[in-house]
Amino acid sequence: MTYAPSERQRERFAYRRRQAIRSVLLAAGSTAVVGTLLVLGVTGSPGWPRVKQSFFNLTVAREYFPAVLEGFWLNVRLFVVCAPLALALGLLIAVLRTLRGPVTFPVRVLAAGYTYSYRGLPLIIAIYLFAFGIPGLRLQGTPDVVVLGGAAIVITYGAYLAEVFRAGIESVHPSQVAAARSLGLSYRQAMRHVVLPQAVRRVTPPLLNDIVALQKDVGLISLAGPIDAIRAAQIGVAKSGNFTPYVVAAVLFILLALPLIAITDRVTLRAARAQNAGA
Amino acid sequence: MVSRFTPLLVGGAALALTAVTACSPVEDSNASGASPSSSSADACPSGALGTVAAGKLTIGTDDPAYEPWFKDSKPANGQGFESAVAYQVAERLGYSKENVVWTSVTFNNAIAPGPKAFDFDINQFSITDERKQAVDFSSPYYLVRQTVITTKKSKIAGAKTLAELNSAKLGAQVGTTSYQAITDVIKPATKPSVFNNNDDAKKALENGTVDGIVVDLPTAFYMTGAELKDGVIVGQVPQVGVPEQFGLVLDKGSKLTGCVSQAVDQLRGDGTLAVLEKTWLSDAGAPELK
């Protein structure tokens, strides 16, 4: 026997469909109104032709796009290397900060000192100190300024990520460790198999958020001397007297960030669903 | 409405025009005597200009006066690029060496509006529109050149030609003619480093993260002389971009401006300025890179 919805149920379906169509139409309508107002507000302003000419100039954009793109390749490579390193460093520091016992006190103090100071230190100054200070020591085998600048980024973001990881670790209820220990797992095993998997899953959205921030801050490497996307854009601005190259660089950075932002949103949504399903 | 006011407008415009045309030649006639169409020789009578001190030409500069623009901080010895230029201009104006008087004027006082104690001042003044609001400038007597500097230990310290800089890692400040000199003239194989300012570039040079940096010649002399330990000038790069221009400073609306400019133009025209530049700048520590 096939399922046939009752008269009443069909009415319910029809009502829901009408409601859905109505809300979509309303949303589309209000979006159109807001969008039109925004476009009119911006393009109708007295200075718009000049702004358009100096920030959204297609000819200038085309002229400096290759140079900015070439510089952007440096940013991409830097990000691909720095992000995993910063995550690893953050996780290590977080674990060190959560160690128990009086013997590990100095380790905890050092780890805490590191997170305090590098979260306070502006990244620009960290890059200056690393890229101009360390080569000044004139030690044998000092790495390239790009490596030093990258190290400044890794160490600064490692401090932020460490705090996020620590928050995750501490959000796992102590009873979980107690249960693990009672099963015969050592402290390390309990951390490795019980605490960290839960901790990382809980803090994935804020971690990814910090990674997105890192992604754009790799642009500060230009301070150390190499020509990255932002510096290439700055050179273009100086040459053309037009700000469009900055917009070109901005678009490239946004395009790079979009996939990561989409992943962050999906992870957040999944985490929220998982939580609710359990409740 | 229109018809009622039109005669008034036309009348007003005519009056204004008359006022302007009547006023403007007054200043000229003061300087050039009775007839405006007289030849330039009459406009600038040799050795008898309306100078601050009659019969003397008073030239200002700062104290201390730095090399290579002056020598031993004594402008009156005729040595150093600007001292030499000043005496050449004086000669063209009809003032012999004995009739030149030097006076000490600080840089800021010289370009500030207000009465001047000099006939003209020579102190590496860049000609800018902002400064033109307060003072007069002569024709430029020097176009600032870009210069490669480094430290003694660097591999390019002994370079004599642009080709020898090909493998060097060079640096410059962003958005400057110096950077343009690297990309347009030197064209090294290694990508240049670009810094927010000259101080960062200098630090990178001291650290050895770049082999040399490009700055303008006055900065090159200052950095190698006063700021860098073991700093050396590698050499001057051929003229590039829109160079900064140095001009003689005169009081705003000075009667001498035309005469001084004319003298400078003559010096440039007959090659005297080129010779002085070679003698006091190129041969005195900043050779040409060919």
UniProtKB/TrEMBL annotation, chain A:
Sequence intervals crossing the membrane: 20-42, 78-99, 120-139, 145-165, 243-263
Domain ABC transmembrane type-1: 72-264
PROSITE patterns found in the cross-reference section: ABC_TM1
InterPro entries: AA_ABC_transptr_permease_3TM, ArtM/GltK/GlnP/TcyL/YhdX-like, MetI-like, MetI-like_sf
Domain of life: Bacteria
CDD domains registered for this protein in UniProt: TM_PBP2
Membrane topology summary: Multi-pass membrane protein
Family from the record: Belongs to the binding-protein-dependent transport system permease family. HisMQ subfamily.
Identification of the protein by name: ABC transporter permease
Source organism per UniProt: Actinoplanes ianthinogenes
Lineage, highest ranks first: Bacteria, Bacillati, Actinomycetota, Actinomycetes, Micromonosporales
TrEMBL record, chain B:
A matching Pfam family: SBP_bac_3
SUPFAM superfamilies in UniProt: Periplasmic binding protein-like II (SSF53850)
Record's keyword terms, sorted: Signal
Signal peptide per UniProt: 1-22
Cited Gene3D superfamilies: Periplasmic binding protein-like II
Keyword Signal: yes
InterPro entries listed in its UniProt record: Iontro_rcpt_C, Solute-binding_3/MltF_N
Organism domain of life: Bacteria
Protein name: Amino acid ABC transporter substrate-binding protein
Species: Actinoplanes ianthinogenes
